[in-house]
Write a structure and sequence with these properties.
The structure is a homotetramer of 345-residue chains. Helices cover 34% and strands 17% of the residues of chain A. By secondary structure, chain A is of the alpha/beta class.
Chain lengths: 345, 345, 345, 345
């Protein structure tokens, strides 16, 4: 961390900062420039970095040098994490397509969807039994009935189940049915929930928040991992901007960026990022082209009857077409580029 | 709600939409224009409005006419809600200043702060015992020990206590000590928590989310109110933008805007919106000038030692100066304007 | 256009709106609902749509039905525009890669870059002689000297020249050298410049603004086209958000979205959207995967010596590797999807 | 400036950076920490700071220490700039209210408005003769006819004229009529226009861009000032966010923030920031409460007939009411706070 002092800083103010740095167990290197004095702080302890340096007299601003995440960082875990869900692998070159209805509605629909997405090549089944809705007056999810339907679908297709947990009191129930736990955008920074999941034993798909940065996304993964769980999947579902054409804005550059910063798998949810059926597919395709480790998509045979988010559901035919197109796609791979482009230099 | 059909729409597609509208218990008025066909839907039932109209063939877009909040809306409750916390009133012309440390640290500090802010004119005491922090490695709050310190401070000063609840499992504990419950920006759309609080009997200060709209803020209030609780205080703490000068961006226009849409009191948290001590005061002052019903501010006698957010804490002298300045401020009042400016027309 | 009236609207207020609608030459359909009265306005004249309806008494809000662009709209020109620049085609299935230095520096560098990108498969050469820089104290471009260097490079490689115009007084000079004119993000809404270019005879690459919407981007194209020029190329270079990982945020969903709304070609500038060399390539690749009509990229053999934007310049080896990878990429095509996915239904 | 090197940095890579720093005439201080190596660069020359450090091998990131603006900075000009327009002073404690129609329409309206705002206390008259409009099909301004009307209004009221210039070729004409030149949000980074105005002799009101930061706003002022003109007025008109309640979002914290960074006057345009008549006044009032040096507001007696932006125009009665309310307002003043709050410590 680097503390930039004001032009008008006094020797006493510099000494005061240095005194505190030392009292908190770190070292301070003072660099008195012609224009500006800068104090470098050495000592990578999170608590020290978080002290309110900005409130010391004479401080102009504070510049952070290191990233605050550790267990999620590739610096501390250089090889890709590979997650294994009942034989379905994700990360480190293994890609995975998770598909299913937004909300679990009828057993008939869910079974039909599960069979269709399995036939088309999906490797896991998604479906929400608890739904975070903006309005308290809309459908809030089918609860345990929905979870039972998902279990039936798993028995018939063999597809592992991905489903959402919205609060700590749902954990016991959901963990009886789910294989992978999903955390939605509104809970990305629900730190108590993250810590609770970190003590459990099932992989977690962690979506970015509506306006979290990529590094905050990693800090939320760090919350889960700091409690012991190693299997976290980062999911990009877009963030909010002033643009209203799409439901959200998903920057595919964050796929290789997160993969460079972290060893965790990165998947793309283009159903929520676009929110509009015809645009779900090209974004899913582009996301895989950019090197994503997988997709999570909503599929429904009759979107007009879906209990939530029907506008963004792919028809089974759409999904089948997308899966066929993905077969012929050779994804971008930063490691190949580093090896091949540079070797010719 | 209005459904705009594509230029290329067929009679069958129009009929299909109309059939569904009627089957869901509403009425459809079809207006076949020269350029575009538009279907108006009459029937203000939330479930109908939320159907996936966009997934019907031939639909170009859907325009919402009504706002989705009801109990929080001034249309359904025309007079200002006045909240009474042990004799301290808020709303309907009663303003209120809530002040205290960000985190509860030592009893000595908290008592000193409580006495100082009381002397300067604060009417409630704030202090966090449970803290939502971006990093799992930083101070997470003092828990029940902190709540006990707040209680002592209340006994000595008479100031009611405002403190944060982060998850459902903290409710029992916190309600034993708190007079007003605070919901932070990361929990604004933690719908399970909102519903749980709505069943309890104490007023809730609901901050806007990091990237919620004013109307979503009201929808979150609606979640609380739909469970029975009527006493919700809307708190503006800024939202995230590309600008990095301040911690967040608080638009004072939202104060009169929320007061026009809703009967609930609106207070301003300029400690979190600016994040920088010298700017907390002018924004607090401007917020009250714009007609806010109150303030919630962080005060600490020694910000360099504060356990969190020291950069934004006012010194007791700052707070005292601000309170003196606020005495001489005559707030803007939209009702006065409507009466006086128009009467001269 | 639809005008939604307030709950409290009076018959006089409705009549006042209707009277004005008729006086301005359009028709008004009043729909008095139980909850809300809505006035539909028929008559697609831009001036009428732009009247200040919101300032009429009793009006709650105004909902637009039609898009305001016409010549840029696919509704008015259903087939893809194909632009031909000295035999290089762009749009309607023809893709194009434009590459070169950010700024024109030395003849030696520019010639080397032009030959390298030509050998790797680029079809046009880019290079800035006039540079919009945030600081007046940094390099502002090499002016006519730079344009002459570009001309030499064209003579040696045959690559048509793409270069930027920043103001009307540069038009005469630049048009003597350029084959395609580029308008940068800070001039996207410089309407006088757009109109001036619309009267000239060379194709224009129009970048989106730092915070323009996709529809505003099209409205800026409309400004050019309303003066007569038909050959406008839309270029996505990302927009500004709160995320600081990349220089800007480019949503690939806007590629098929713009192609649906408009017949104009859409190209991707991932040099400016990411601003960081290793991320330029995966985003370029993903953009082409999503169906973009082309790329515009910065290449420099010695980025450490580049006069501007060295951080984002690809090395010639990078560019060659990217071009080889693009050969094997089969782009997404919305028309194929519509034909094939639905035919199996 | 500080260059943070990657964990994996080699001695050769460090030496390469240092070699370039020295070759560009600055000094490099290398600090090899246990975790990370950091290179501090001393030498405050803009060109050096702008070199593409990020493209050197082994560089992780670059942290800027100094702000890039100089003539606009309070560090280089500690006392407030006071601008005098025919006796009307602005800045350094002198406040100013500029009012008038958005567009100049008829002489009758403009004269009526000018007299009304003069009577209510306005000190300058605004009115647009050239209008930047999103659509080429809407009213583009009345040109010289409008300027003549403004001149008549000045002759009748004595109010100096504020009007917009959109491009370099309008300068000659507009300078014959205007006393103060206004630069709108779409031209904030039209650097050629800024430089041209900097060579002229009349004060410039420079609005922030639709998505510029406060520091970029100052850099645009620096563009004007670097050509010689000292009289620049910073105008806050809000920026674009995801919130759609208001037309834009104006953070009043930027008023004292800009005043701390710069000696230039800061005024508020709440007509454009809110875009909705009832919210123009409380934001204007709050802006003055926060210490703004002035206001610029749109007033029209018949907004339903206004040629542009009628929704946001104040009625003359509104304006008169606002001016009366402003008389009783004691603005926040950071200097008073620093003197008084600290003196009691």
């Amino acid at each position: 961390m680097i503390i930039v002092m004001k032009n008008s800083v006094t020797t006493e103010q510099i000494d005061e900062v240095v005194k505190h740095v030392i009292s908190w167990g770190a070292q301070a290197h003072v660099d008195r420039g012609d224009v500006q004095t800068v104090i470098g702080i050495i000592g990578d302890k999170a608590e020290i970095l978080r002290k309110p340096w900005g409130s010391f007299a004479g401080v102009e601003k504070v510049l952070e040098v290191s990233d605050p995440f550790k267990m999620a960082s590739r610096k501390f875990h250089p090889t890709d994490t590979i997650i294994d869900v009942e034989g379905v692998k994700l990360g480190g070159g293994h890609t995975c397509v998770i598909a299913g209805p937004c909300s679990v509605d009828t057993e008939e629909y869910v079974l039909a969807i599960a069979k269709a997405v399995k036939a088309a090549g999906a490797t896991m089944l998604r479906g929400g039994a608890f739904k975070p809705r903006t309005s308290p007056y809309t459908f809030q999810g089918s609860g345990e009935d929905g979870l039972k339907i998902l279990k039936t679908a798993k028995q018939e297709t063999g597809l592992p189940i991905v489903t959402e947990v919205m609060s700590i009191d749902q954990i016991d129930l959901v963990y009886r049915y789910a294989d992978v736990i999903q955390i939605g955008a509104r809970n990305t920074q629900n730190f108590n929930l993250l810590k609770a999941l970190g003590k459990m034993g099932k992989p977690v798909i962690l979506k970015n928040g509506i306006a979290t940065t990529a590094k905050e996304h990693l800090m939320s993964a760090e919350y889960v991992m700091s409690e012991g769980l190693k299997e976290v999947i980062l999911c990009l579902r877009g963030t909010r901007t002033y643009e209203t054409a799409m439901r959200n804005c998903l920057d595919v550059a964050l796929i290789p960026y997160l993969q460079e910063l972290s060893h965790l798998p990165v998947i793309v949810d283009s159903s929520h990022s676009t929110g509009i059926r015809p645009f779900v597919m090209p974004v899913a395709y582009a996301g895989m082209a950019a090197g994503a480790d997988g997709l999570i998509l909503e599929v429904h045979p009759n979107p007009c009857e879906a209990l939530s988010d029907g506008e963004q559901a792919l028809l089974p035919n759409d999904f089948e077409y997308l899966m066929k197109r993905l077969e012929g796609l050779k994804a971008w791979n930063q490691r190949d580029w580093k090896t091949q482009a540079k070797s010719t230099k």
